[in-house]
Hints:
Blueprint: H1 2-22, E1 25-30, H2 31-40, E2 46-52, H3 63-71, E3 74-77, H4 81-94, E4 99-101, H5 102-105, H6 119-136, H7 141-166, E5 174-177, H8 183-188, E6 193-196, H9 208-221, E7 225-228, H10 235-246, E8 251-255, H11 269-286, H12 295-324, H13 329-347, H14 351-373, H15 377-399, H16 406-410, H17 419-438, H18 440-448, H19 450-455, H20 460-482, H21 484-501, H22 505-530, H23 534-555
Parallel strand pairs: 1-2, 1-3, 3-4, 5-6, 5-7, 7-8
Helix pairs in contact: 6-7, 7-11, 10-12, 12-17, 12-18, 12-20, 12-21, 12-22, 13-14, 13-15, 13-20, 13-21, 14-15, 14-20, 17-20, 20-21, 21-22, 21-23, 22-23
Amino acid sequence: MITLVVVLAAAVLFFNASDVQDRPVVLVTTEVLAELVRAVGEGVVLVESVLGETSSSTFRMRPSTVERVLKADLFLYIGYGSEARVGELAAVIRRGAPTYNLAEVMNISEVRTAFWISPKGAVRLVDAVATLLSHHYPHASERVELNRRLTISELTQLDSWVKEVSHSIGTGSVVVTIRPSLNDLLEDLGGVRPVVLTEGFGVYEQQLFKLREVVSAMEKHRAPMLVEAEEEGTTLREVIVNLASRAGLEIGGIVYYERLDSERGIRTYEDLIRWNTMQVAQALSSATGRPRTDSFLSLVAIGLLALVAVTGTTSLVGSFAMMRGWAILGDALSHGAIAGLVAAYVIDADFYLGALIAGLLVALSVSYIERRTKLRGDVAIAITFTSMLALAIVMLSMVGGATLNLEDVLFADVLAVSDEFLVRSLLLSAISIAVVLSVRRPLMIYCVDPVYAESIGLRTSLLHYGLLALLSGTVITAFMTVGAIPTVASFIIPPATAFLLTRSPKSYIAVSAVIPALSALGGLGLAYVLDTNVGAATVLVYAAVFVAAMITRKAS
């Protein structure tokens, strides 16, 4: 009898396994979309998410991912922001194989909100998915239709629950979000009005004027803020956290629009809607007190202080590097530090510490290669920092991407500087300036003529490695504060401008430090007028001052 039961069970498992293996594979982008497609295609297709727990904004294709995309029978994506780029890339890889932008199927010209995070919006998405599955698999159209009806029935019940929760929320409530991720759900919750920092799902543009509007809205409406899980680890989230802290507000709970989170008990689409709804209700119920009205000014003042400190110190140290012929080393340090950031992300360590260690490794590697091989310094630098960048990309691929956006690395938002990092930056800047001023004479002799410095008894090895350590500390601190491009610009352009304007070593060093301080003020003003990134505007001021100095010198 036991043997018969075992045989029957094995037969059932075998036929079920065969049935599963024979089903077509539908590959989709996000975990949330996978949940809805899986409900409609239950018993008809197998559904997989290409993104999984990775955010679409940081997703990178790997060979194994390309293979999955090619082998899938059907590929579906919603068509918004970075998620749309993933879908478009998949369409190119598949070369005409069935690939659908669901927004186009639903006659939506542009996805401006995460409409699927409202049960009503999910119903529309379910209808579109059912239409596509019935078209491609007509033999299973009855099963698809039955699944569609059951799914819509569940979504209708979920919508009723959302409306019940809305009764506990006061009318005229306001919630601040980073993306327009909750707009449709907030409308279901009795018309809660969203104040959105970034109007779309594209790349966040670090704009001063837009930030001031958000601060004004917060001060006016006393609005709590909810942060999207997809923004964790980004500069934009750091800006929001600092803004809330200085405005006297607290960040509310984490909300989701792309992925699930089993650690928080969010395993299904229904879990996701209930989680987001309760986060909104709790944030509104706990919002008390009115924020301070000087939050924007304090945010700008702290950002300006950090900008002046790190760029001024970087230019001061960069003036010695230029005399030594190491101008391009700043580029190597700032770009090589990306590997340190990725390594820190992988092992969940401090980002600054990871970047600093990577910067020191780059500096020491350049010095070792240069001395060991007798190659020119620029060759050693190119070998080192390109290798470090390649290492960063490989590590990112191995972990499936990370919330480290390229825009944040190239042009970080100086307004995202936390109080803790500001203190760290000011302390390191003060130490660096003190060290440079105390050893400026022997350091200058070494940078101008290392052979002569050694002949007169200076400890050139100590000066050499001391300068490398100083360069690493200042450049990495600036890199973490304003990004790679403003750091490299601060390292090179002000000293180059000072070289054109001065005639003595003493004035050269002084002017190298003064130019970035004044340029930071000009950059802040330009960023406000043009509504753009402060670091990028400061670099433009550097360039304008350099051109003016070049023209003046030529004329004289």
